[in-house]
């Protein structure tokens, strides 16, 4: 059996969820959209369901998958519905629903409902992607209240730059939110992971942690709360071939790495078809039997090559960690000029193996 696999530590997931709650002092919707950022939405939901105040996903298809797997906790649809016809299923399964655009608001107002919905009215406080304009917000709120269509109405917004602790934009967004929602009763939900970790002075009744649940830091620099996270996914495989290269010999496609000394090369059974970033440069960290080493040569579809020169005990069958407990995914992401979110979401083919303690 091919040894490429992603170990998923569900105890670490539970630890990180608890941390989100503890830091915020708020209720937490575990964001498990996009198959829980590649970690498996159903398995993650099951691991959290005795603890979690609720879950959040991108769309009704993802929410239905959870209900079909027996998850009965609240599930928020972060982008609401894409067509008004979804409102029937939203009622039937009791999904909570974001309204982020005027067309969604109008659809709710004019669709007859069997029972009122749990609605989250989203404000565009400065990210300028989705959400109602500050000038429209009060009126929309009043319309929903008067329509009787909202069993519960939550005030919501989203930060564009919460991962930059020195950036004034988050405070500006918070102030815009405070002004636009002034005088409207109801709970508040503002915080994604970086806001939960770095901006605890803004208050949410509901935080919406995503990446932090999976134990990766959303920050480019060290951050004290993020240091308390435990990595959930360990992507690993094994060395399937070893060779020694004399000085001046290239490795792999395009000869991107050329040995400048006698070099021992290990070939690892894992490639970009498993989700490892093809753009990872020479020098990207890996761990081999627990010891630090580096990627050398271009990443292939099914294999990649690592430097064994300083690890004489390593060889055929050695375990190679591409990211996880020893090699932070955020570090690999920086080398590959991406973010850990994308590394996780790209995971495919490598089998997921779950551990609960
Ligand atoms: C994805 C998402 C989150 C979670 O973001 P993280 O940065 O992963 O914590 C929170 N809120 C909304 C609206 C989202 O779309």
UniProtKB/TrEMBL annotation:
Family: Belongs to the alanine racemase family.
Domain (Alanine racemase C-terminal): residue spans on this chain: 232-355
UniProt-recorded Gene Ontology molecular function terms: alanine racemase activity; pyridoxal phosphate binding
Residues binding substrate, per UniProt: 129, 301
UniProt record, GO biological process: D-alanine biosynthetic process
Function: Catalyzes the interconversion of L-alanine and D-alanine. May also act on other amino acids.
Organism: Ventosimonas gracilis
HAMAP family: Ala_racemase
Name of the molecule in the record: Alanine racemase
């Amino acid at each position: 059996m091919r040894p490429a696999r992603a170990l998923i530590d569900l105890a670490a997931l539970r630890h990180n969820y608890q941390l989100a709650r503890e830091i915020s002092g708020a209720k937490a919707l575990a964001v498990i959209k996009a198959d829980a950022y590649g970690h498996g939405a159903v398995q993650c939901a099951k691991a959290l369901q005795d603890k979690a105040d609720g879950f959040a996903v991108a769309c009704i298809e993802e929410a239905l998958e959870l209900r079909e797997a027996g998850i009965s906790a609240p599930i928020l649809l972060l982008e609401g519905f894409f067509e008004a016809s979804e409102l029937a299923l939203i009622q039937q399964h009791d999904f909570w629903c974001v309204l982020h655009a005027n067309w969604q608001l109008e659809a709710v107002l004019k669709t007859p409902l069997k029972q009122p919905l749990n609605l989250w009215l989203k404000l565009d406080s400065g990210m300028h992607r989705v959400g109602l304009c500050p000038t429209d917000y009060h009126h929309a709120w009043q319309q929903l209240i008067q329509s009787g269509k909202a069993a519960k109405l939550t005030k919501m917004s989203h930060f564009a730059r919460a991962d930059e602790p020195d950036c004034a934009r988050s405070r500006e967004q918070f102030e815009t939110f405070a002004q636009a929602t002034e005088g409207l009763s109801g709970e508040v939900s503002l915080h994604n992971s970086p806001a939960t970790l770095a901006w605890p002075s803004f208050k949410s009744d509901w935080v919406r942690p995503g990446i932090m649940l999976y134990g990766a830091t959303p920050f480019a620099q060290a951050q004290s709360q993020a240091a308390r996270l435990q990595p959930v996914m360990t992507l690993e495989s094994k060395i399937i071939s070893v060779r020694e290269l004399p000085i001046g010999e290239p490795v792999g496609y395009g000869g991107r790495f050329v040995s400048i000394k006698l070099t021992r090369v290990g070939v690892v059974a894992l490639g970009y078809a498993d989700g490892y970033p093809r753009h990872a440069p020479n020098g990207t960290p890996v761990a081999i039997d627990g010891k630090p080493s580096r990627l050398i040569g271009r990443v292939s579809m099914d294999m990649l090559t690592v430097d064994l020169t300083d690890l004489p005990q390593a060889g055929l069958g050695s375990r190679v960690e591409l990211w996880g407990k020893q090699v932070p995914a955020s570090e690999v992401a920086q080398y590959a000029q991406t973010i850990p979110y994308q590394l996780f979401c790209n995971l495919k083919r490598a089998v997921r193996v779950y551990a609960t303690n």
